[in-house]
Amino acid sequence: MKYALLALCLATPALADEYRATGDLGLIVERATGSLVVVDQSDRAAIGRIEGLGDLSHASLVYSPDERYAYVFGRDGGLSKVDILSREIVARVLQAGNSIGGAISDDGTLVAVSNYEPGGVRVFDAKTLEMVADIPTESKTIGLVDAPGRRFVFTLWDKGETWIADMKGAEPAITKVTGMGANPYDALLAGSGRTYITGLFGEDGLTALDLWDETPEPIRVLPGYGRGEEELPVYKMPHLEGWAEAAGEFVLPAVGHHEVLWIDARDFRETGRTETHGQPVFAMARPDGRQVWVNFAHPLNDTVQVIDRMTHEVIHEMKPGPAVLHMEFTPRGHEVWISVRDENRVDIYDTETFEKLGEVAAESPSGIFFTARAHRTGL
Amino acid sequence: MRSLFALAILGLALPAAATEATDAARLERLVTQDCGSCHGLTLKGGLGSPLTPAALADAEPEGLASIILDGVPGTAMPPWRPLLSEEEALWIARYLKDAPQ
Questions:
Q1: Whether this model's pTM surpasses 0.80
Q2: How many CA atoms lie within 13 A of A348 on its CB side?
């Protein structure tokens, strides 16, 4: 009992007598050390650290609806639930051998993890991390998102299928959509929760699904967009995240080409292309959609470009430093945080003036996640 | 772009003449960070297959080096020839096979 009390005292740093809301907090993944930096976005400062999360290379996380807990998906199959106020791990399971991201259901009760090994999706109770469903796919599984109606959507790298798992009943009800294309590498759900788009590595183009359709059919987007052009070696797969919608258009990274692609969000017609500094990894629309920020694959990953939504032209270029891995906007987009892995630093910029406003130290930082994500579908 | 690759090759070729320790550190970093983006930071696999000594036990260093340099057509493994010399690829192949568990 004494030990328990002692542990409790150590784990709750001065929070008992201080009310602290979490709406402007965030977490930065320190990929090499298996830790998270807790940051205060308003103060542009680190306020703590959470350790012991295993292999966090390529880690991502989602937030509980109350923005107090984060569910962290590690590469090593670890699923950890952390309390960002007390800065401790409150639950942790090693749920697979090799994992690639996860999602939380719209009602906040289920957390799903997408696995390479064994291939498939496992679903856990968000309170206890007890497994409630196992959905083997016999394929590396990518692009897992939450969709409205207590559903999860994910895609099979080896089979080119997208599965929609409806979790409203006691058992998952699975809808399988075949013919999505060769080697889908990642996917995103657009803000409204209606359009699921998966990028293809094995062929040029993307495939969209209208989730409002009773029986969604693959919709080919820009098939053969790079045809006839020389394909460059891909040293890093692009990422697709739910920040692709910019005022009625989707902006998406091309694979094996130095460009981003613009398509009409309603009819998926191409509306333009923007030549970029390198092969894009993330193309992220500022929350208002006016700008798109792009970072690049090795060996051109020291640079960030900003593209104007109106003209599709690059309006600003900066070189924050070696290995820019991720960018995260403040919820209304006035600032952006950029992780510079090899400088052990996260830079903070004003998105209108591009002035650097501050920096936060972090060990090999990768993903940056602000708690406002808790209220966005598909992140 | 061509000139950038040429520059990159030049950049790699020059320090090769410098101290071996620097070179090893640079290549080790490349293995962890850049190979790691598909094969996992600990090389236990990801979208790419595992590259642990156990997984590579039956592979010859020369064979691995040629996969590194020329990639595996039809898969996500790209050719690293634009960025690495043959000596460097062989160094990486041996490093992977001998890496401490």
A1: yes
A2: 19
